[in-house]
Amino acid sequence: MEAKYGWLVVNRFLNTQKFSELYGWFSAAAERYGTELEVYANDELTPSLTDGEPNITLCGKPITRTPDFVLFYDKDIRLAEQLERYGLRLFNTARAIELCDDKSLMHAFLAGKVPMPQTYSAPFTYENIGYTDTAFVDRMFELLGAPLVVKEVYGSFGQQVYLCRTSGEARALLSRIGGKKLIFQRFIASSFGRDLRLNVVGGRVIAAMLRYNEHGDFRANISNGGSMQPHAPSLEEEALAVRTAELLGLDFCGVDLLFGEDGSPILCEVNSNAHFKSIFDCTGVNAAEAIMGHIVECIKRGA
Questions:
Q1: C-alpha dihedral over 292, 14, 75, 249, to 10 degrees?
Q2: What residues have CB less than 8 Å from 93, skipping those under 6 apart?
Q3: Order of strands, edge to edge, in the sheet holding 56-58?
Q4: pLDDT tens digit string along 97-124?
């Protein structure tokens, strides 16, 4: 079977130049592979959650042309699940996206399988109630030391990630952000202001860059004022990135690694829908080309 026709599913509400540029890259890459790629926003695909058989409408009408694949560049997990029930092959799968989207779920799934910072999940509360008792914050500092990292489980581009030096700072943070789902992590001081981004496609690293911040921010993300340079990953770094993607069932992703005290890599997090403009600017590698090539090969092999 050939990948002659596919859908690129994107999020209606991320309608910015930063993302629309990538969608254009995907379309151009598909054309070079002789594949027709139609772009649909997630609000144009409406799945029924109550019909016995999978039932999805496209712009309010029945689907008349079934795609050979779906490049699902979104985090609308319920839609992804229903498209799979409909019988469509998604790149990435609903489960893989779900595991990456929730940082607490990702760490729990990978626990004991790859090196990661020591991590604890914050107790559950309700967003309209928040943390009315923060005694657990002291226990986090006892377990992890100071400073420690607090992360909202949903977030990208280094946003929703905080460094708290005291329990007072952490309590003030919790008061400010309300009842968001959180994780607490041991701070990896040896990686202050620097990390690695490795892009993995089809079980291999296609590009890597070192990100570093020279302005005192512990986060190295480019969107937070960080800088970048091409990086030749070590065998250990490459193996960790590929292993992580394999465990999570990802066709493509961005894997962020920290530097341990001895220089060995530690997994920070994984982005199933990694934004790849920066790594293109840094390395000249177009991830859209690699992703489309992987999709075409998978469809051809019936994988």
A1: 30
A2: 80, 84, 249, 251
A3: 45-47, 56-58, 61-62
A4: 999 999 999 999 999 999 999 999 999 9
